[in-house]
Batch of 2 targets.
Target 1
Amino acid sequence: MFDMMGMMGKMKEVQAKLKEAQDKLKDITVTAESGAGLVKATVNGQKKLIKVEIDSSILNVDDQDMVNDLVVAAVNNAMLTAGERAQEEMKKHTEGLLPNIPGLDLGSFGL
């Protein structure tokens, strides 16, 4: 027979673990680079851009498009890696809380 009270308790546990994991995402930082390190972007696990570093050697370049492209590439690389790390963190904190349900992706909660 279905244990509704047990399930409700389990859901509260899942919610608490998700909240804990989401709070820790801000502590994850990832730095990615483009242009052989000429541009670096740092993103946290909440996919917020924290810092962009641009090497001074390309700031005086007449090719503004190249600088723009390098910034976009570095930010996109950092966002991708941060997203992967955030999913790993969420999975680690929620592992074993719910049965393996196909299509249920706890890593996407709050990301």
Note: The first helix runs from residue 4 to 25.
Target 2
Amino acid sequence: MLIALWAQDQNGVIGKDGKLPWSLPNDMKFFKEQTTGNAIIMGRKTFESMGEKALPNRVNIVLTSDKDYKADQVLIFHTVEEILHYIEQHEGKYYLIGGTGIFRSMLAYCTDLYRTTIESEFEGDVYFPEELIDRNEWTLTKTIPGIMDERNHYPHIFELFTKK
């Protein structure tokens, strides 16, 4: 099962200067709950933006065109086809976590989408490629309102979509 998992602002911003442009602990908790014990797939830039350290209790997969790229505790693949072959051979849940290039390359293979929408605007330099999501192919199956509190300052919702 291949699932795209991301957070965006209301304009589709997903990053700025290699980081998230917001702090939203509820979203980090949701991310951890979904991905722990499963696999995450990311591009090299996303991996490097996380401090070049594998996230614990997950299979970490990095897609890069750099044939010499090395990282500890990470599976390195150089093509989408290699990743898809690996997924076919190893059951489980695989989460695409970014960046834009990974979403562009692999979104068509996803069965589910988990999107956190932060109902605010942020400055950013990386956007989710919304044009890749054909609304006729996806059904919104669940909406979970995010709770605002002293640590979570932005209104947000978690949306789960399933491919028709």
Note: Strands lie at 2-9, 13-15, 39-43, 59-63, 75-77, 94-98, 112-118, 126-127, 138-145, 156-163.
